[in-house]
Backbone:
């Protein structure tokens, strides 16, 4: 039991007497094609929990709102403004620091949240005795390598995020591969153009692959988070 | 199925073609005595879901971080700063409005978040065709009346928030009633004094009551949220 | 002489050598039906001065601008944005703290300013040796009790705020009681609906009552502020 | 009767049907040597009222808190931060604009508030049909010329701000002239150095002059504000 | 070699072992009539470099974006918002302070940036061991006196800013004097009115004067900056 | 002549009558080992100018201050805070948009500025008729490929940024290759650890390579920027 949901403050106080690590999963509620709007939340929280549990490291609730202005034309995709998102991260780091935490692992599940990395870098520069890592679990060299052994196109809302816990009951998926994303067009696309470009919201490639194949990628993600928790510190 | 977790964007788009209501539950991860640190999150989200489901109204994921600076001496109680919290609410309202929502019910589960009410009032003043209600489900006249029929002291982290889904396995609760909170002392207490004053974090009264009694209070809360969703609009 | 207007800095320096309390009245310039636009300013400042004078406690000038976005359709009701108002309070607390003050009583005269309470709570959490109380003088249990002994409907801009020093020369008041406010409608009203709902701006009830009756309520308000100044601290 | 204090919203609505001008006096509560801490507030508000009354132009309550970080070592001198002060001005302009005002005269009584001029310039650039003037009543060419006919050193807290309504009962003033301010030293002085440099807080020159002489300067100030109200617009 | 462009960090570290002064030139990219859009940048940076070089004082790169909302109708005049500009100055002072600098000279080349002075004043009040001077090189008594010996109307974009290094190849200048600026009209002018008023963007007077005459004014500017660097500190 | 420095507003107005593109180079003044503190500024501005000149596209002055909190222990490395940097970008985009520009290419020269990409994405989402590209010229697939043909370790402050216009006269460079950067250590390093880790500030690899080899990489960078300017739009 290492998730805040399963703990009370006395248990956290006891934990802090012997450890100072904490995991903060970061997500985004947004279109994921045929998959759940909470796909990023589910995956960030789950990869954190699976990684942290064997180590007994505390996992906070996922922040379910992130930066997704480009998906504004897809209903169900609320977004924070950039400054707000950064302030949320800063406030959480600040107040957790006051309570005694010193090593922070932010496990990010959403590409649009990448600026959190700059915030973490800035925050750490002002806290000489704290360490913080911003880790986008799905985009690391290690996970991308594992993914590409399965299929050359791991991407937003396709098989790469399609798990028993992100797919929806009764929703059928296209069986064909989607054509590759036109990256040059995507780079200059506003919300309307993004929708024209993506249609169903999936970026490219296969919509689903056999669970046992995808599980290998997932396993790589869990292990990398666990390794960071164990030995990613100075 | 009315929770974002169980829906994809196509389903929300279809929903928006016939409805413009949305529920945003607001919580706080913070000390709740012997109960789960996520008590406010769990209750806000659950009261929203139970109220909204029969009506088919969309429920967003709970915002699990709120304003709780006074509990800084209780580990596991991260807090946003006031401006950040208000910005989060504003951004969510703004971006959901762009996606077509017009009637917003913010179901608040935490006393410290009360300033959200002012934000909602300000936001609505600039959006002539939108309506937004900030509803603290547990503090309404109706719920307080139902609670006081059960026990005269419904309060933070006591029986009033003690449900099968907020209590923790293997954690024993004191059987005696706690002495009433010294409200005058609490009013001028900083974090350290708050902890001295509250000790285990519960404000006062009985730690638990029979579930069937508490369920009556819960039912009043669910029904009031549902009534607001149905007929609280202009 | 305890008001800043009647003092110079040498006198305040002398005061600080023996006391560290200060009163900051908070108002709002806004519609008050037939009464002065400065009703909240006048009352907050006056209740502060009458309470503080016998104790010799310093009273600052009233902040005459607050949060009143819902009255935007009533000319003469400028409003601050929520973040601005909170920043004003924080800055005043911060800079007065630097000058040696440690016990702050914010005497609030306007319902819309309630978020100031959250700001005070947050500010105090970061200042272990300071105390601050946000007190809405007119809404306390004690004053409301005194008011209801006079008339069951003390409310915005009615008899409850009608004093020789808030009423205007040559302005006649309706003699009948106004029908009760439709609170459900008010809850979801934007500025335009608020004006349709309120008409002359008074919420409900009698427009005026005999001064000697209202004076009893006022006296309760003054005494409560004085009690807080004397013994509200830890 | 042109001050908000003496008006209700119905009267302002009637006023707006024939005029769109409004005066916002800006002050600062801060050390003024032997004079009232509210000297800037009193003078800004009074010069506004005397100028506006014959024209029937609306005058708002003075903003009694401004920018005075350099006087931090003089008790009784709270200060806003620069961003906060600018936000207050912007919010007041914004919300008054919504209510129908189009010509704004900000009558400033305090040197430290000079950045308000930049704010006004920026605000006007985004409001094609509004005009706003930031006028420091005491530092205009015209008032300075009138002052120098009386005495070569009109300055902070000396005879230039010494009026029956800013001096304090029972406080005696030095009879000699104070030596000229060392401006080079003042330029690089922090709060502590400012106090060492200024001592009693007066900048230089005579502490008082006969009221009838000072009245001539005052008259120039009132007339200039009135002229701006009458013919300062495009 | 005292400009950051010509130095690496090792050289600055060595410099800091014997000096703690630094010059930050402030400009604005904006219309300057027939002259370069970068006139303010060029002059602020150059006057800084010429003044600092003989003293060996470090000069940072000019900040080429400032506050110029009133020139919005002149293409090529981007502007920062007021709060942003102030934040830039604060951040630079803060981070340079951390690196060991203690005496800051901000050499300002643009009238619209004047609020920087208030920021510097505020910043210094919180840094007891640092000094900072905000110096508008072109508007000092000394430079204005030198200019008026040359011509009675030194002003924006006229001869006063016309140097071999700000004028453009192949651009011809009007030979007649421009009529004096209508200052009353300028005071209430928004961007559109400013353009109507100024036409080519020059405020008034002669467009060019013989270089040797203008050089005398320049020399006064350089010397004053150098004097401040040498003996302007406490 | 396409740089703002060589243009006046009339020329930009004429330009806008036939084009709506503009280039904003982004840099950072910070440690670059033995190279100039302005390396990022020089390269971003120069790659922009070389790319834009043949096309006649307007290039603004480089923003010479960026995000570099991790280099705080290297003197001469001022940094903006993250929010400030983002506000600068937003303000420049906003005000240039008002002046008629619609296609913006931000040419970034500094890794720490990567959050600008999120800002651009957010800004574009609110401006349906504008396009903006945030392009880190040195980190694109194309430039990295060109670099790796020359040497496997193109990196901060090594040969990859060593050009005739960034190296300093009289400064000798180490002749050996520097050992590879310990990326795991760098990830959790605060400013002090960064300095311990990097020593002279160079990340790894060769300090210099023959200019003709580096020129091939440069050429790839210039061409890619030019391609984006020509055909990167929708």
Residues:
């Amino acid at each position: 039991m290492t998730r805040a949901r399963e703990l009370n403050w006395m248990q956290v106080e006891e934990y802090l007497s012997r450890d100072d690590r904490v995991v903060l999963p970061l997500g985004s509620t947004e279109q994921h094609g045929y998959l759940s709007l909470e796909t990023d939340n589910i995956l960030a929280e789950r990869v954190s929990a699976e990684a942290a549990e064997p180590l007994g490291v505390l996992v906070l609730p996922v922040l379910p709102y992130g930066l997704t202005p480009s998906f504004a034309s897809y209903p169900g995709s609320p977004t924070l403004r950039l400054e707000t998102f950064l302030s949320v991260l800063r406030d959480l780091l600040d107040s957790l620091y006051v309570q005694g935490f010193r090593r922070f692992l932010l496990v990010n599940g959403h590409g649009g949240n990448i600026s959190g990395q700059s915030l973490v870098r800035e925050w750490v520069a002002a806290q000489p005795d704290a360490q913080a890592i911003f880790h986008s679990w799905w985009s690391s060299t290690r996970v991308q390598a594992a993914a590409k052994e399965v299929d050359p196109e791991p991407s937003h809302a396709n098989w790469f995020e399609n798990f028993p816990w992100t797919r929806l009951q009764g929703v059928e998926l296209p069986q064909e591969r989607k054509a590759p994303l036109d990256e040059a067009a995507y780079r200059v696309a506003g919300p309307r153009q993004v929708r024209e470009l993506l249609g169903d919201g999936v970026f490219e490639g296969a919509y689903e692959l056999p669970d046992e194949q995808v599980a290998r990628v997932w396993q790589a993600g869990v292990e990398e988070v666990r390794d960071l928790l164990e030995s990613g510190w100075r």
Remarks:
- DSSP finds eight helices and four strands in chain F.
- The helical segments of chain F are 9-16, 39-52, 82-98, 116-125, 141-150, 183-187, 191-198, 211-231.
- Chain F has a mean pLDDT of 97.
